[in-house]
Structure formats: C-alpha cells, structure tokens
Design a protein that fits this description.
The protein is mainly beta. It has a domain of about 90 residues: Aldehyde oxidase/xanthine dehydrogenase, a/b hammerhead (Aldehyde Oxidoreductase, domain 3). About 10% of the residues lie in helices and about 35% in strands. It is built from 4 helices and 12 strands. It has a 3-stranded antiparallel beta sheet, with helices on one face. A 3-stranded antiparallel beta sheet has the order 5-2-7, with no helix packed on it. It is flat.
Length: about 200
C-alpha cells in the first residue's frame, strides 16, 4: 500500500468551464468580432537575416483595389523599445533579423492583404549575419543600433495610428512596463459606430 503522502497519488482533474464551448466550436475569439467595415492587416516581414534594404516599393500593392493603406518606417519614424529605445517599428535601411517587419498592409479582406504583401517590391544587399554570442562580442562586430541613437524610455510610450487619410486618426497611451512570460496573450478589436468606440477584448487562458 502506497504512502498517503506519495506524490504519485496526486490527481489534478479540474474541469474547465470553457472546455465544452471550445470543443463544440461555440467560443468566439477576437478575430470573430470583425464587422463589415473592419479592415484586415498583414505584416510584410524580411526574408533574410541581415541585409541593407536597397529598395522598398509599395506602389504595386497600394494601387490594388481594396487596399486602403500601407505603413512603413516613413509612417512610424524613430526608435522604440521597453526600457531602452533601440529598434524601429519597421525596418529602416537595414534588416536586423529574419522576420523583421518591413510594412503592414490594411485591406478589405485578409486574402487581399496577403496578395498585396506579395506585390510589394523589396530588394536587399546581403550583409554577413552575426550568428553566435562570440561573434556579437567581437571588437569589430557590426552594430544593429545606429551609433548614439539608443535612448532610455522614462515616459509612457505614445503611438499614433492613421488608418486612412480623411477617415480616422487616433492616439493611445500606455505606460512602459515589463511583462512576465506567464502573462496571457491579450487581443482587442475596437469598433466605431455613431461617434462611439467599443473595444472588445479576449485573453488566452
């Protein structure tokens, strides 16, 4: 007979209140809140790990019917970061890592936004990537931060977003704070109607 204090006897069989709805497909997520006037956005990401951007032409995508706006580093200048502002929102001049955002496309449908992202012309001049800690610590290692440009963030970050000229512009402020790894992902879907904004939130649990 096993000892009552044996850890192997511990049973964690806690029912989840959301399990039935998730299994039956009844749970509604933020992506399900899209209304008829909601735009869909797709990020265009770098396909190389280290390079100089010699050309970024969004004209072919911007002229596609149903594409409302495209934002690049020209629309979000400056450096950002938590604690230390050391990176741009969109890659400017150089690519620092594979998958770094180059632009965001807003279109009437998700499929159209994806097609528009593929229509953007991007040309690179390859640069040797830094792949190890030893290489990054070498005296002659290239810096991914412009000299003298990184600054400390001591005030709340402010972000402005212009969805489309003449349609809507808004500004939101949030304090700078570190987020632990166990924090649940949170997404939101703001809706505007009759001059009133409703923001629906969903959090993974």
């Amino acid at each position: 007979m096993k000892n009552a204090h044996d850890p192997s006897l511990a049973v964690m069989d806690l029912p989840r209140r959301d399990a039935r709805d998730k299994l039956r497909g009844r749970t509604r997520y933020t992506v399900d809140q899209a209304g008829p006037e909601v735009l869909h956005a797709v990020l265009l990401r770098a396909t190389v790990a280290s390079a100089r951007i010699t050309r970024l032409d969004v004209t072919p995508a911007l002229t596609m019917a149903g594409v409302n706006a495209i934002a690049t580093h020209r629309d979000a200048p400056g450096l950002h970061g938590i604690g230390i502002a050391d990176h741009p929102i969109f890659a400017c001049d150089i690519v620092r890592y594979h998958g770094e955002p180059l632009a965001v496309i807003a279109a009437e449908t998700l499929a159209l936004a994806r097609r528009a992202a593929k229509a953007v012309i991007v040309e690179y001049e390859a640069m040797p990537p830094v792949l190890t800690l030893q290489a990054a610590l070498a005296p002659d290692a290239p810096s991914s931060i412009p000299a003298g440009k990184a600054t400390r963030c001591s005030t709340p970050a402010r972000h402005g977003a212009a969805i489309s000229p003449g349609k809507h512009a808004s500004t939101a402020a949030t304090p700078t704070q570190p987020l632990p790894a166990m924090t649940s992902p949170l997404s939101k879907a703001p809706m505007m109607s009759g001059g009133r904004t409703t923001c629906r939130l969903s959090r993974a649990r």
